[in-house]
């Protein structure tokens, strides 16, 4: 495999001249530049991107912090970012923070050590002050799915509360009164906002018997929460923190021969691909995660794009039964 010394020898110039051409830094005559580029082509020389990054103290790499890349929700976000990054010649580096402050900080430190030039952060563990401090170290930073008042121009988010408000109001308008909300076990801005949307709609209908349970925000969390809920309460509908949790609810109800939606209606949140692969197909809140990720990436990289006002909406499928028409 040819190295920079081979290129310099073939071009008849110094190694320093080759280095200046590769890094586009310093003065090089047009003749020498042409000789170096010709030698690179003939030798099929591939510069070491990591070494170049060390020289420049940065790289064309986007560090992406998410909760868990195995979660389909975050998988779709990562894919949307990566598709745009690849099309513009950028690499991506992904880290799981599991919404824990120490783990998220460790991932950020790792990105910095790897000379990541750009950061897209989905954080629920770091404080606003943490994020403000990170923004002072990282010039190119976008925070998604969170509103940090100290960083108004670096946040891309949507009103989470509106989603559960729409879901709850839809059930109430169809005659449901005994509605439970299954929230994430983890106290985050997102879990608080989604719970508050449910409570606000219930209050507007003068219903004080609000049922809120906390569980792991995944399939198994939905299974365990639904079991506990049926042991304690009689409900006609369940709203879930996310679609993965809703699949667990549906699985448990099927295993106990409880008809969906006639006996119990179920609504999810996020509208991941899985929502159309369960039976019955899941009515859910569409979270425009792909559009948010694409927009955030373009803003981060300075790619011209129009300002977008992201909104949540209810996707009507087959998992809700109207108690009144």
UniProtKB/TrEMBL annotation:
- What InterPro entries is this protein classified in? HTH_LacI, LacI/GalR-like_sensor, Lambda_DNA-bd_dom_sf, Peripla_BP_I
Gene3D superfamilies to which the protein is assigned, alphabetical: 3.40.50.2300, lambda repressor-like DNA-binding domains
Which CDD domains does this entry report, sorted A to Z? HTH_LacI (cd01392), PBP1_GalS-like (cd06270)
Sorted alphabetically, which keywords does the UniProt record give?
DNA-binding, Transcription, Transcription regulation
The HTH lacI-type domain covers which part of the protein?
2-56
Q: Does the keyword Zinc apply?
A: no
A Pfam family annotated for this UniProt entry: Peripla_BP_3
Task: List the molecular function annotations (GO) for this entry.
Answer: DNA-binding transcription factor activity; transcription cis-regulatory region binding
What protein name does the entry list? Answer: DNA-binding transcriptional regulator GalS
């Amino acid at each position: 495999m040819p190295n920079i010394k081979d290129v310099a020898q073939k071009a008849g110039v110094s190694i320093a001249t080759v280095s200046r051409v590769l890094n586009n830094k310093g003065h090089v005559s047009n003749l020498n530049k042409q000789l170096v580029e010709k030698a690179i082509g003939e030798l099929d020389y591939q510069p070491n991107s990591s070494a170049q990054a060390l020289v420049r103290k940065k790289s064309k790499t986007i560090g992406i912090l998410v909760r868990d890349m195995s979660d389909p929700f975050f998988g779709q976000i990562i894919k949307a970012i990566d598709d745009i990054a690849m099309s513009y010649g950028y690499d991506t580096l992904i880290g799981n923070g599991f919404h824990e402050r120490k783990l998220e900080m460790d991932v950020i430190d790792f990105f910095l050590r790897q000379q990541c030039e750009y950061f897209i952060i989905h954080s629920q563990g770091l404080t606003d002050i943490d994020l403000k401090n990170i923004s002072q170290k990282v010039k190119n930073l976008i925070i998604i799915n969170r509103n940090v008042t100290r960083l108004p121009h670096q946040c891309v988010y949507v009103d989470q509360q509106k989603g559960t408000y729409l879901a709850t109001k839809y059930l109430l308008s169809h005659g449901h009164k005994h509605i439970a909300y299954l929230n994430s076990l983890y106290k985050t801005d997102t879990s608080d906002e989604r719970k508050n949307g449910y409570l606000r709609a219930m209050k507007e209908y003068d219903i004080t018997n609000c049922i809120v349970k906390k569980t792991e925000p995944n399939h198994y969390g939905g299974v365990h929460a639904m079991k506990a809920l049926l042991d304690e309460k009689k409900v006609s509908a369940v709203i879930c923190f996310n679609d993965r949790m809703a699949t667990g609810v549906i699985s448990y109800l099927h295993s106990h021969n409880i008809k969906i939606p006639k006996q119990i209606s179920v609504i999810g949140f996020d509208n991941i691909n899985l929502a159309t692969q369960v039976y019955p197909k899941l009515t859910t809140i569409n979270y425009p995660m792909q559009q948010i990720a694409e927009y955030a990436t373009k803003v981060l990289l300075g790619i011209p794009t129009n300002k977008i006002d992201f909104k949540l909406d209810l996707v009507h499928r087959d998992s809700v039964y109207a108690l009144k028409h």
